[in-house]
Each structure stands twice: as structure tokens, then as C-alpha cells.
């Protein structure tokens, strides 16, 4: 099952550790940043499913970081801050935040707010298809099944997780770091040989390795994209 990737940016190390530990315990993959500029860079590189930003950070504050992220992404953003006045909350929400949580905070409540936002946005990604029908291949994301020329194909757990990530984002290039973070965790985001191995195995099982129009396209040095099925498939 895919883990949602959460980016948490805060210059307060104990809070960063607390939020990361709580979200990891609740089943999320987590990447962190300690200032706004680092948060923007990490958001561009990792493409998280949700961002939690402190406002008062060095180098670049959270509101400015949110402005930069909003220029290229609609990713949900929660502001987590000591600024608790009504005008601060209105300003943050007006500038693009999806939620606003004030410090001190309850980690359980923060995690519940993350879960609520993820439920709200689920299905609104690049592909909402649950069954992908290609001429010789069918991928059923709901029932976790793959058929090739009518025969059900057995995939290992890791093979399925890689295929699930690609199929549930069909039509979008998934970066190496994004795939690695979601499947193995952020600490593996540079281990691109993992992907070469597992994508090769999946292609072989799908009969896709010698296909002139492959279902899974390689973008050298960047990532992979699973093509969307044509409408007449």
C-alpha cells in the first residue's frame, strides 16, 4: 500500500522530531526541512502529498515558502505556528494554506487533520482510475490484481508497490526520489539502482520490455511514467 509522503519544515528540532515520529507512527513517510528555502527545494525534489510549514523560520519564513510552493503546486499545506491571533490565521489561510494549527499543539490532533485532508484530496491526483485497461494488460488497483493476455500475473509485494505507485499516478512522470521515498522511505531516495531492478522485473512480467510503445516509459536521470490507457482500450 502506498505511503503518503509528508514534508515537515520547522527550525525547532524537538518539534520536528515530535511531528516526524508521530506521522511515521501513523503510517506516513516523512521528509524534513529546517528553513523555508530548504522546504521549497525539498518540495520541488520530493513532490510530497502534504506540507506542514512553520511560519517563523530562518532564511525564508513559512509564508514566503508557501508562496513559492504555490507557484508550482496545489499540494495541501498546513501552517503550524506560534502565531495564534485571528488576523494571522486569516492571513495564512488567505495566502493559500489549507489548515492552520497553533502551538502548543496536540500531535494526535495534527495527525488527524493530516488524515482529514488526505481523505479529502484522495482521488484528485493525476489519475483517479482504479482499473487501467491496456490492449494486453489490466491493472486493478482496488483488487490488487494484474492480468496479462487474460492470465493473472503474480507480483511480489515490492513489485506491486512499485507498479501501484506508477499506475495510481498514470500519465505523470514520477521522480526517482519520489518513488524511492514512498516505497522504501526517504533515506533511500538516492538508491536509483533499486528502481532499475524492480522496474525491469515488472516490465518482464507485463511483457513490456520490448514494446515499441511501452506502458512504463523511462526518463533517464529523472524517473518513470506509466502511460494512461487509451480511451478505446
Structure, described:
By secondary structure, this protein is an alpha/beta fold. Helix content is 39%, strand content 20%. It contains eight helices and twelve strands. The strands form three sheets. Strands 2-1-3-4-5 form a five-stranded parallel β-sheet, with helices on both faces. Strands 6-7-8-9 form a four-stranded antiparallel β-sheet, with no helix packed on it. A three-stranded antiparallel β-sheet has the order 10-12-11. The chain is elongated. The two termini are 26 Å apart. The model has no long low-confidence stretch (mean pLDDT 87).
**Average of the residue pLDDT scores:** 87
The run of helices and strands is EHEHEHEHEHEEEEHEHHEE
Distance between the termini: 26 Å
**Strand order within the widest beta sheet:** 2-1-3-4-5
State the total count of DSSP E strands: 12
Task: Tally the helices.
Answer: 8
How much helix, percentage-wise, in residues?
Answer: 25-40%
Question: What fraction strand?
Answer: 15-25%
Largest sheet: 5 strands, parallel
Shape descriptor reads elongated
Low-confidence stretches: none
What structural class results from the helix and strand content? Answer: alpha/beta
Rg from Cα:
19 Å
